[in-house]
Amino acid sequence: MSSRTEEITVSGPAAFGLLELPALSRSTVDRREPVRADGQALDRLWAAGRLLEVDPKGRARVRETGELVTAPIPADLARPDDVVLLGVQDDVGFWARRLPQEHPESGWQDLRQAGAALSDTDAGLLTTAVGLLAWHHSSGFCSVCGDPTRSVRAGWMRHCESCGYEHYPRTDPAVICLVHDGADRVLLARQPSWPAGRYSVLAGFVEMGESLEACVAREIAEEVGVDVSDISYLGSQPWPFPRSLMVGFAAVADPTQPLIPADGEIEAAFWVSRERVRTALAAGGNGPDFALPGKTSIAYRMLEGWAA
């Protein structure tokens, strides 16, 4: 392990925190894990349930009022194998299934578009549905023997009939870190693929055998050539694109260190004052000379907390 990693310092709580839960961390339904293997209980929840449909782009129907559309399940519709149980609220089972084709009608939105405007209940339902259904779509064959798998336990496991292996939904951890100078400046960067003018905090996937804190230090050094200290935890948010969990941190860096953007990954990076971030936030995330990430992302909440 490099000397950079060995010299990581981890502090106590950050001097700032998230003012609100990240948009996709909100949920109110009971996941009801114990009933997933109880066929009779599942049939009762299906009979009195509501169904959420998600198209292959991860979009669901959202009313103009910002309410996620779930439909009552017809009394004569038997529970199909491809539905997943999202959870239970007020004795109502919420289920989801993936449509075979993109929905052509207007009013269908994905989490990036609608996530921040959804209610706590709807945000939790759609976030879980998008991630779980995407996992099913990509997990039809056993990674051990290559034979087909089938959905069991209300969609929370896939079982290989040939070798007996049990497959569970995967979550890939990634760190996202707000780097500041300990005073009134924060480090922002942009990827080449982002919309023109958009900047955010830095992020990257955790590698095998790596701690979250070590990943923070490595990713910041790799992406902009800066060493960090005082790494502290802020919060987390599921990010089902397709199956990430964003774990938020803050860290301190010396702004006199030269910024060296990673070729092909980081198009530009710069230090910006707290006042300029506040100006951008007051304008809904679109400042006069740069734009911030959307309100659905944890990055927005991190910047909002630091600016406050």
Automatic annotation (TrEMBL):
Single GO molecular function: NADH pyrophosphatase activity
Nudix hydrolase domain: residues covered: 169-296
Catalytic activity: a 5'-end NAD(+)-phospho-ribonucleoside in mRNA + H2O = a 5'-end phospho-adenosine-phospho-ribonucleoside in mRNA + beta-nicotinamide D-ribonucleotide + 2 H(+)
Pfam families: NUDIX (PF00293), NUDIX-like (PF09296), Zn_ribbon_NUD (PF09297)
Cofactor: Zn(2+); Mg(2+)
One GO term (biological process): NAD+ catabolic process
Keywords tagged on the record: Hydrolase, Magnesium, Metal-binding, NAD
UniProt xrefs under InterPro entries: NAD-cap_RNA_hydrolase_NudC, NADH_PPase-like_N, NudC-like_C, NUDIX_hydrolase-like_dom_sf, NUDIX_hydrolase_CS, NUDIX_hydrolase_dom, Znr_NADH_PPase
Entry's family note: Belongs to the Nudix hydrolase family. NudC subfamily.
Protein name per its UniProtKB record: NAD(+) diphosphatase
